[in-house]
């Protein structure tokens, strides 16, 4: 990440027990990380309603990253198994809405994996910067879409 | 329809043990049917059946929970009943299912498009595969296949999957559904798709007819569209809000939607809502090899998991 690039808005939903710990480990280890990610700590990746992600994306986030415990490692035994199905379904659903599915990513990082957390954040932020700011979905975009549709007639 | 008299008799036979039997009757004009709630044998005489009976009556089942209810189902409607049973939203012992075969229902919207107006429909004549509509003194004739609802063209369930009482002959032909409409739409670029939905959602008047008509929308007073705790939706009429509501609706139906098309049919603004549901179902089908409402003993895929998922690859970085 170059220092002069403008920051984008990336929302990160991290599970309390693994990924938040992992991010903390990365911090304690003083690893260099991009600063675009705003972390929201949730008790478990199973707590993450896919609508959290959708609402973030619709209301202007440029990217959303969800991270939980590795499967088999969930603090609540099976939260991340449910999360895995929901998030995978969501990722495959996004394209029909015209939202780039690359703007949403989910992964598993454990509390000891500070180095992995650094890699995940850096790579994801890099991807989002390649994609650029997300197109707005507001009334202005709507008027533009209508104008384009009229041209096509 | 030749099975109508038989159906009426069978309903009358079962009526004493039931609180109500749901069917269809003639609506305000000859083209439109409307749900009929039969409590006495006289009510049963008003029953009609055939291509005009479009409504998925299973929508009313959850509201009548705890009562003994009879319901008339077409093949597609039976999937909804199965799905409701799967999720234990209704009790098998309380429901008597009267199954009828179906060879397609008409789409009033398609006829309206052909005719230009549906203000004065004088008569409708259904014989075999043709629909003759007399409107403002003019007679129009259509092939049923041309004015049938889109879902009928890909119907694989012409006879009910579940029934206690079955009348009529089971048609053997069945179409295939390869989700080609979804694939066709996905050929558009991301911008075009986004523009399409922004345009469509801009028309939305937030009447929630799609939600009210949906048989699988069972949250009732706790619907996120109106709940203030959590406050998911604002009362503003921004296009983001309207799009968000439709995504919420689709997500809540993931792995549960039986594609009855009631959402799209009831939409006063003709927003192509079923496409979103079908995209979701296509992905569910690809991932979990699952179709909602086909087997009473199945668990909807998002309410269960496998420790090793066959079709989800682990995310490597």
Task: Please write out the topology.
The complex is a heterodimer of chains A (153) and B (317).
Chain A: E1 10-15, H1 19-28, E2 37-42, H2 50-58, E3 63-68, H3 79-93, E4 104-108, H4 114-131, H5 139-152
Parallel strand pairs in A: 1-2, 1-3, 3-4
Chain B: H1 4-14, E1 20-26, E2 33-38, H2 41-44, E3 47-48, E4 69-73, H3 75-86, E5 95-99, H4 108-115, E6 121-127, E7 130-135, E8 138-143, H5 144-147, H6 150-153, E9 165-166, H7 180-185, H8 190-203, H9 209-213, H10 239-252, H11 262-266, H12 274-288
Parallel strand pairs in B: 1-4, 4-5, 5-9
Antiparallel strand pairs in B: 1-2, 1-3, 6-7, 7-8
Helix pairs in contact in B: 8-10
Organism (chain B): Pseudodesulfovibrio portus
Domain 4Fe-4S ferredoxin-type (chain B): 194-215, 248-277
Keywords (chain B): Iron, Iron-sulfur, Metal-binding
Describe the structure.
The complex is a heterodimer of chains A (153) and B (317). Chain A is an alpha/beta fold and 153 residues long. Helix content of chain A is 43%, strand content 15%. In chain A, strands 2-1-3-4 form a 4-stranded parallel β-sheet, sandwiched between helices. In chain A, α1 packs across α4. The radius of gyration of chain A is 17 Å and the shape is globular. The model of chain A has no long low-confidence stretch (mean pLDDT 91). Chain B has a domain at 178-317. Chain B has helices at residues 4-14, 41-44, 75-86, 108-115, 144-147, 150-153, 180-185, 190-203, 209-213, 239-252, 262-266, 274-288, and strands spanning 20-26, 33-38, 47-48, 69-73, 95-99, 121-127, 130-135, 138-143, 165-166. In chain B, strands 1, 2, 3, 4, 5 and 9 form a 6-stranded mixed β-sheet that branches. In chain B, strands 6-7-8 form a 3-stranded antiparallel β-sheet. In chain B, a hairpin with a 6-residue loop joins β1 (20-26) and β2 (33-38). The longest helix of chain B has 15 residues, at 274-288. The radius of gyration of chain B is 20 Å and the shape is globular. At the A-B interface, α2, α3, β4, α4 and α5 of A face α8, α10 and α12 of B. Chain A: Keywords: Iron, Iron-sulfur, Metal-binding, Oxidoreductase.
């Amino acid at each position: 990440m170059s220092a002069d690039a403008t920051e984008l808005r990336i929302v990160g939903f991290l599970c309390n027990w693994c990924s938040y710990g992992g991010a903390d480990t990365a911090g304690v280890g003083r690893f260099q990380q991009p600063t675009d990610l705003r972390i929201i700590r949730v008790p478990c990746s199973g707590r993450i309603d896919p609508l959290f992600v959708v609402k973030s994306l619709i209301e202007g986030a440029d990217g959303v990253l969800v991270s939980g415990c590795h499967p088999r490692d969930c603090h609540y035994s099976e939260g991340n198994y449910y999360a895995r199905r929901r998030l995978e379904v969501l990722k495959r659903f996004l394209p029909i809405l015209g939202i780039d599915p690359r703007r949403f990513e989910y992964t598993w990082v454990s509390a000891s994996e500070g180095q992995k957390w650094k890699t995940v954040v850096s790579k994801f932020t890099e991807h989002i910067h390649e994609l650029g700011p997300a197109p707005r979905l507001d009334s202005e975009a709507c008027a533009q879409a209508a104008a384009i549709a009229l041209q096509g007639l | 329809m030749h099975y109508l008299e038989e159906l009426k008799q069978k309903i009358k036979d079962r009526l004493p043990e039931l609180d109500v039997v749901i069917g269809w009757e003639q609506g305000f004009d000859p083209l439109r049917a409307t749900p009929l709630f039969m409590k006495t044998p006289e009510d049963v005489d008003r029953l009609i059946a055939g291509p005009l009976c479009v409504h998925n009556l299973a929508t009313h089942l959850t509201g009548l929970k705890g009562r003994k209810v009879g319901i008339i189902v077409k093949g597609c409607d039976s999937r909804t009943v199965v799905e409701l049973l799967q999720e234990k939203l209704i009790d098998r012992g309380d429901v008597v299912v009267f199954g009828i075969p179906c060879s397609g229902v008409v789409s009033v919207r398609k006829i309206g498009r052909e005719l230009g107006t549906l203000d004065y429909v004088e008569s409708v004549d259904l014989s075999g595969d043709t629909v003759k509509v007399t409107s403002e003194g003019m007679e129009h004739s259509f092939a049923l296949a041309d004015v049938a609802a889109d879902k009928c063209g890909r119907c694989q369930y012409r006879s009910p999957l579940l029934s206690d009482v079955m009348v009529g002959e089971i048609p053997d032909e069945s179409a295939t559904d390869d989700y080609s409409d979804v694939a066709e739409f996905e050929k558009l670029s991301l911008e075009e798709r986004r523009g399409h939905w922004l345009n469509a959602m801009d028309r939305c008047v937030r009447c929630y007819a799609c939600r009210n008509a949906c048989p699988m929308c069972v949250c009732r007073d706790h619907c996120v569209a109106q709940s203030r705790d959590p406050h998911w939706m604002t009362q503003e009429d921004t296009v983001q809000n309207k799009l968000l509501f439709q995504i919420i609706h689709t997500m809540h139906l993931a792995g549960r939607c039986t594609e009855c098309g009631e959402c799209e049919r009831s939409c006063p603004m003709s927003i192509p809502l079923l496409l979103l549901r079908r995209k979701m179902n296509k992905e569910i089908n690809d991932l979990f090899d699952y179709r909602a409402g086909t087997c009473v003993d199945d668990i909807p895929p998002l309410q269960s998991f496998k420790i090793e998922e066959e079709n989800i690859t682990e995310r490597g970085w």
